[in-house]
Specification:
The protein is an all-alpha fold. It is 76% helix and 1% strand. The radius of gyration is 20 Å and the shape is globular.
């Protein structure tokens, strides 16, 4: 297998990991005002993702860095053409990160309310825009002979792109509700499980329409199988949630997102960014790739460091694997005088 194909596959794996892991903490942030009844329950929800959210963001940093190094032409066209959506995502991620760090620093209700709003918006914006961006990448965008994007922001806001955004938005919300149900105890656990089923039904309808549309645009026999498996996993997850099996329900949404993203990359290959102007102008794994020497060095770096990063992240999840509830929130944290909840 050529190294260009290997790195296309590795970048796909990084995006699968990012959407599966950050997807649920986006969902937790978006559902903060819906699931939590008071500040104690909001603190419980935030604590479910507190130890892992920053580790989850490492995946998008590595995916972006790997794209820059392995496929510089893809990176240049993508980041110049999608400049405004990606800038909004970056700002949202920064604001979201600040909310985790500063919410508990002061006890005033207004202070906490503003950081809660930052967390909600900072989770909502990336959940919507990542879907818009990936839908446009798969469907193709106007690219000229110089490999430059010739459209505008409104080019990206087409029906297919907006549907992709709604799919990621509802899927991440469902995934987040499943995670809250898995990681908490008491009333909030049951509330999250019921909400996950209700949002999941909406997500399932939108996802099926989007995946069928994607299949008609770029699909192969293999992507049809993968998309069908993704839909079946989502249904199985919702059934498990109804039965009170939160662990299997979370696995169901996890596998759904993984298979859906994998199917998008399978349909995209060997292109990395199709051109709707002329197929001859499309960026591919060949004409957008870095030199063979660069890819060889990157491969050795990945072989050495990837197991270390994966091992550390798995250890983090293992250490913080227990359920939490309102009785685990110290009074000092609620009063804003302790850092133990960050």
């Amino acid at each position: 297998m050529e190294l260009t194909t290997v790195w296309f596959a590795l970048i796909a794996v990084l995006w699968v990991g990012y959407f599966c892991l950050e997807g649920f903490d986006f969902g937790v942030g978006m559902l903060l005002p819906v699931l939590a009844r008071d500040d104690t329950e909001r603190r419980v929800m935030i604590n479910t993702v507190g130890p892992v959210w920053d580790g989850n963001e490492v995946w998008v940093l590595v995916a972006g860095g790997a794209t820059f190094a392995a496929f510089p032409e893809w990176y240049a066209t993508l980041f110049s053409g999608f400049y405004l959506p990606l800038l909004l995502i970056l700002v949202a991620l920064i604001v979201r990160g600040l909310s985790f760090e500063y919410r508990h620093k002061r006890e005033e209700t207004e202070w906490k309310g503003r950081w809660d709003l930052a967390l909600i918006i900072g989770s909502f914006v990336p959940s919507l825009l990542w879907g818009v961006a990936f839908a446009n990448i798969v469907a193709g965008v106007p690219i000229d002979a110089d490999k430059e994007f010739t459209g505008s922001l409104f080019t990206l806001l087409n029906p297919f792109g907006l549907l992709g955004g709604l799919v990621t938005l509802t899927l991440f919300a469902t995934h987040g509700a499943m995670f809250v149900a898995l990681k908490t105890d008491g009333e909030i656990r049951h509330r999250a499980r019921d909400l996950a089923v209700r949002i999941g039904v909406v997500a399932a309808v939108l996802a099926v329409v989007f995946l069928v549309w994607t299949q008609l645009k770029t699909g192969t026999a293999l992507t049809a199988v993968v998309f069908a498996a993704a839909a079946a996993s989502l249904v199985a997850g919702l059934v498990s949630a109804r039965a009170g099996r939160e662990g299997w329900a979370f696995v169901g949404t996890f596998v759904t997102i993984a298979l859906a993203v994998a199917g998008l990359f399978l349909g995209l290959f060997p292109d990395v960014m199709p051109s709707t102007t002329d197929p001859a102008y499309s960026l591919t794994t060949t004409n957008a790739a870095a030199t063979a020497y660069t890819l060889k060095v990157m491969t050795w770096v990945a072989v050495i460091f990837t197991p270390i990063v994966l091992g550390y992240q798995a250890w983090t999840y293992w250490v913080f694997r227990k359920r939490i509830s309102v009785r685990h929130i110290p009074t000092a944290v609620l009063a804003g005088t302790s850092d133990t909840a960050s």
